[in-house]
What does this fold into?
Amino acid sequence: MSSSISRKSWGNFKNKDIYLFKIENKTGAFVELTNYGATVVSIVVPDKNNGLGNVILGFPELQGYLEDICYVGSTVGRFANRIARASFNLDGIDYQLEANSNGNSNHSASAGVNSKVFDYIVDDDRLIFKILSKDGEGGFPGNLTLEVCYQWTSDNALLITYTAITDRKTIVNVTNHCYFNLSAIADRNFLNHRLKINAKSMLESAADYIPTGRLVRTNGSELNDLKGINTCYVLDKNGAAATLVDPESGRVLDVYTSYPGLMLYTGDYLESRCNGHLGEPYKPLDGICLECQFYPDSPNHPSFPSTILKPDHLYQESITYKFSTQT
It folds into this structure.
């Protein structure tokens, strides 16, 4: 095995046991995860001077996640991002979902798996979280069984695989909602980071972040002003989907994915009710999200890549966060 997995009790939620898992490789770098929301709690990797630091936002206690409203580190589904008017039509049937964002559905509202307790399996160096989202929950059709598999490699890559099956035709879009800050320093935001996205176009959206259906050309893949952005980029198929660099620490994050889109959210509305890992509540621009996924509102745009899952098909998508350093 390239990594070892340990577990400790972390509390209880609705009479279900919550655990904090640690996956550590032989270099001492590690990730921590919890079965509450299949959430990534920390990712601790070296800087250019080989000093270890946590590069995502998270909370040191379970209570931080129970009170969180910003999806910090969590798995987001059944359908990540927005669905216009909280409704969609599938095979002539109109489905009404819960509206939680200006009349739209965002991250599946109360049906969101980010606030659910997953079962878990430890399989050698793989940690697998599993949950059943029942037919009709939040308005979604089908009993959906979702598995989220995490692996932490010897060269500091976090591999995430999403697998789902359904007993009834439905829609699925699952992603990770980590907020990254490669500096690992409490009073430093990410505005000095450099970001490159491997995309030549992005979705045009209205003021409520619902896509119009049009694709527009980007002004270049390197973004210098990392604030005020909540945009889905249409990824090119080759190479890393995105590369994030912190020049001061020398840390580099390369993101790889099977998904067609990447939602860039600069955390302008981020606000936590509890103290984070470094002893302070989180505030806007403390972390940046690189959410690999299908396009927002896909069920209402036939020209977008399909998010339909049929009973005889397997949903399987992946995201890899690969960490390295440069001098």
User: Anything to note?
Assistant: The longest helix spans residues 62-66. Residues 169 and 310 are 5 Å apart (CA to CA). The two ends are 30 Å apart (CA to CA). The chain has one helix and 28 strands.
